[in-house]
Specification:
The structure holds two protein chains of two kinds. Chain A is of the alpha/beta class. Chain A has helices at about 20-25, 65-75, 85-105, 135-150, 215-220, 255, 285-295, 310-320, 345-350, 355-365, 420-440, 450-465, 470-485, 495-510, 525-545, 595-605; strands spanning about 5-15, 35, 55, 120, 130, 155, 160-165, 170-180, 185-195, 225-230, 235-240, 260-265, 330-335, 375-380, 385, 400, 405-410, 570-575, 585-590. Chain A is globular. Classes of the chains: A alpha/beta, B alpha+beta.
């Protein structure tokens, strides 16, 4: 074996967004040695972009809120495909996880009484999102970062893991490279937590950054773990659509939470036209009631703009397809209209939505206090991911844990806004705690040298491929085009079958991409290496989408518009690597609810 | 489609120079879009640091036509495109490659500062009560996205290279956010005076001018901290007055 720089930890956390940081902090509590790998610089992970807030039933604004209502809202939002135990733990524990951040320096906006203020968000029955204007993610990651750097955690910035290492059945370490010089590093660990985020870069229009290439999903899959619910990709209803260079950048749901309304080119509030059965009783049937709801008036129902994201996104697509879209292929999101309702509206908007105000002012020359924004759906989040035990977050591979967006179970067929930031706190902590426990109970297992040399050779292959091999950026762009067109909001047997073929073709081309230059901070080489992860998650999404012959939550099939296949019952899809190396798919029936949880659903709905 | 030339700093710590690239530009593009297009089509191995592309993460700091900016927020239609647009890395930090610099010094500085230390919780559930008006000014400091453009333009760091004796505007903002935090109990004034070198700042406000988050660094963070340091250590008359009053 060639010699590589080697680190030895009790717990290694891969990914340094909210979930990874929270896991690392927890794992370091008992004086264990903890390594934390960041793909970028510390504090730049995707959590920083979260805007609207973190969902927690603190009941500071409406005392009727409780973990039980939060649980019921999450289950309904996920179309009852969520792991109920995860939804229960999440609803029960997120208040403590949010309060704890205050002790680490986070400063949420306040109520009149000086407590943490909470705002309305889609699918949440009561004002539940603790927030800081529209930069909640920044506040959270900074609080975690500034606390985390004093816990003795060994931080490796700008490192990427390309493979997990196993010894027998157990995970024994990770192989990666550091960006600056391109040197390889070996991380030996008794337990590993994956917290790598999502897969948005598999699509052309996305709110996600270059990092979001499905690394954790792919690493876990190749190590033998299961991926569930991969067909459920969230297309956030409101991304920027113009100018085209900023297409996909997120426009927070907080705009609608503060009273923003959606209109088509005819000036009509089209969201009133189609209100799903599951939500009829909770939705306002006139604009006035909807407005009063956004202003926190009790016993009012939410405006239809605050229905779940999957539904709002589909309604926007319908308006555009039927010729009632805005000039650049979106619809209008109007917050400026609230000047009819409140004095000093421009100042109010700038205070509540400061980063939206700047984003549109500086990138689109639009003053959102004066005129409507143009918005359309953007690939935002994946509900599916690595299957984990609800309590411990351990995967099917002993010693391998996962938390945050790359793990799955909590959100079912659709995630509610605000439930991601709470997810990563609750389950980041749990993953860190149980990984630490695993590390204390188990010895280090030696890493097998042969495995390392094989991965190293594979990682250098793009440099050795023939010079006429494809440009890695071209292959990535082609994959994004195909996924957007064939595996996007509207899917069919035909589009998905074609997508599988395209993915196979691109996989062959990806094996021969050529990287120019040397190993130092070489973006082309990194893009080439990320392709394998992107192709793996793209195939998993497509296979699962083919399997689910129904339209439920974020998954829509033109050829199967009904919510359930006749006689199929409720199930989750599971993707796993077969012994012959192919991707195998199976269904897993959703287990019945525990009596106490069922009682909550029966009562609250 | 119109074309424009970008004069980009290429190379590493040993050798680097400007290289011209011509690329197509369209309405609404920002400098980072042009850099990405050049990277994908003509210079696959070009190093550039970026993440969110929406002015929220503070990764893509660079000097565009000599002005420190986030490349993702630098609109092409604000630049004269009839001449080459120069894009260089931040000059106050060591070059790694192309547009990427070694900013690790900043992370080390923060680690050395005294962390947040809250008073015991006000309520039984472990929470505190704070008025919104008492935290407004700290929330301004907490808008910081750590792009380090303020560090890049600060002459104490850029020209005088006093990285060992001076923590720079970013970390005065950080210190202010802790010192003025309503529930923090720590005192950081001695460090601010000594190891953090706040005295070196002569209030030229270069940092405030480049802050993409529009934080009034000098007026709201540095000057009040300087006043606290002066009150604590340099005001014998005031001290005497206090003794006799």
């Amino acid at each position: 074996m060639a010699s590589y720089e080697t680190y030895d930890y009790d717990v290694l956390v891969i990914g340094a967004g909210g979930a990874g940081l929270r896991a690392a902090i927890e794992a370091s509590v008992g004086n264990l040695s903890v390594g934390l790998i960041c793909k970028s610089l510390l504090g730049k992970a995707h959590t920083v972009m979260a805007e609207g807030g973190v969902a927690a039933a603190l009941a500071n604004v409406d005392e009727r809120d409780s973990w039980r209502v939060h649980f019921a809202d999450t289950m309904r939002g996920g179309q009852y495909l969520s792991n109920a135990r995860m939804a229960e733990l999440h609803a029960k524990e997120s208040p403590d996880r949010v309060r704890e951040l205050e002790g680490w320096g986070a400063l949420f906006d306040r109520t009149q009484e000086g407590s943490i203020l909470q705002r309305n968000f889609g699918g949440h029955q009561y004002p539940r999102l603790a927030h800081v204007g529209d930069r909640t993610g920044l506040e959270m990651i900074r609080a975690l970062q500034d606390h985390g750097i004093h816990q003795g955690i060994d931080v490796h910035m700008e490192h990427t893991v390309v493979s997990l290492l196993k010894t027998g059945d157990r995970v024994s370490g990770a192989f990666g490279y550091e960006r600056e010089k391109g040197r390889f590093k070996i991380f030996s660990a008794k337990a590993i937590v994956l917290a790598t985020g999502g897969v948005g870069k598999a699509y052309k229009v996305t709110s996600n950054s270059w990092e979001y290439t499905g690394d954790g999903h792919s690493l876990a899959y190749h190590a033998g773990a299961e991926l569930i619910d991969m067909e459920f990709v969230q297309f956030h209803p409101t991304g920027m659509v113009w100018p085209s260079s900023v297409r996909g950048i997120l426009v927070t749901e907080g705009v609608r939470g503060e009273g923003g309304i959606l209109k088509n080119s005819e000036g009509k509030r089209f969201m009133f036209d189609d209100i799903p059965e599951l939500y009829v009783n909770q939705t306002a049937d006139n604009p006035e009631e909807g407005w009063r709801y956004t202003q926190g008036e009790r016993d009012t129902r939410r405006p239809p703009e605050l229905l779940t994201r999957d539904h709002v996104a589909r309604c926007i697509v319908r308006e555009v397809q039927e010729g009632r879209g805005s000039p650049h292929g979106g619809v209008f999101l109007d917050i400026a209209w609230i000047k009819e309702k409140i004095p000093n509206a421009p100042e109010h908007i700038r205070r509540k939505l400061p980063s939206m105000y700047h984003q549109f002012k500086e990138l689109a020359d639009i003053d959102i206090t004066e005129e409507p924004m143009e918005v359309g759906p953007t690939t935002h989040y994946i509900m599916g991911g690595i299957r984990v035990d609800a309590d411990s977050q351990m995967t099917a591979v002993p010693g391998l844990f996962a938390a945050g967006e790359c793990a799955a179970g909590l959100h079912g067929a659709n995630r509610l806004g605000g439930n991601s930031l709470s997810d990563l706190l609750v389950f980041g902590k749990r993953a860190g705690e149980y990984a630490a426990q695993f590390a204390m109970e188990n010895e280090t297992v030696p890493i097998e040298a042969a495995a390392i040399d094989a991965v190293a050779a594979q990682t250098l292959k793009p440099f050795e491929n023939a010079q006429d091999g494809d440009n890695p950026y071209n292959i990535q762009a082609q994959l994004q085009e195909k996924m957007q067109k064939l595996v996007g909001i509207a899917r069919s047997q035909e589009s998905l079958t074609q997508a599988l073929e395209e993915i196979q073709n691109l996989r062959e081309k990806a094996a021969n991409v050529h990287a120019i230059g040397n190993r130092e901070y070489n973006a082309g080489w990194h893009t080439a290496l990320d392709l394998d992860c992107l192709l793996t998650v793209s195939e998993a999404i497509t296979l699962a989408a083919l399997e689910r012959r129904a339209s439920i939550g974020a998954h829509s099939r033109d050829d199967y518009p009904e919510k359930e296949e006749p006689g199929a019952g409720k199930y989750n899809t599971i993707v796993q690597k077969a012994p012959d190396g192919t991707m195998a798919l199976r269904r897993y029936p959703v287990p019945g609810l525990q009596a106490d949880l069922q009682a909550i659903i029966d009562e609250i709905g | 489609m119109a074309k424009a030339t970008f004069r980009i700093w290429r190379g590493d710590a040993n050798a680097a120079q400007f290289v011209d690239y011509e690329t197509e530009v369209a309405e609404g593009m920002v400098v980072l879009d042009a850099i990405h297009r050049i990277q994908a089509d003509q210079a696959n191995d070009m190093a550039v640091r970026w993440n969110c592309k929406a002015g929220k993460c503070g990764s893509c700091s660079a000097e565009v036509n000599g002005n420190p900016k986030l490349m993702c927020m630098a609109r092409l239609n604000d630049l004269p495109l009839d001449e080459p647009v120069t894009v260089e890395p931040m000059r106050a930090f060591p070059l790694i490659k192309d547009l990427v610099t070694d900013v690790s010094w900043n992370f080390k500085v923060k680690e050395k500062m005294k962390p947040f230390a809250p008073r015991p919780p006000d309520a039984e559930d472990g929470t505190w009560r704070m008025e919104q008006e008492d935290i407004d000014h700290i929330q301004e400091f907490r808008k910081c996205i750590e792009c380090f453009l303020c560090q890049d333009v600060c002459h104490v760091l850029r020209e005088h290279d006093l990285h060992e004796e001076f923590i720079g505007p970013r970390f005065f903002v950080y210190a202010a956010s802790l010192e003025m935090h309503p529930i923090d109990t720590e005192n950081r004034l001695e460090e601010l005076k000594d190891s953090d070198g706040i005295g070196y700042c002569n209030i030229t406000k270069c940092c405030t001018k480049v802050c993409p988050e529009h934080i009034t660094i000098t007026d709201n963070a540095i000057i009040p901290l300087k006043e606290r340091v002066v009150d604590e250590f340099y005001d014998p008359i005031k001290k005497l007055f206090r003794v006799f009053s």
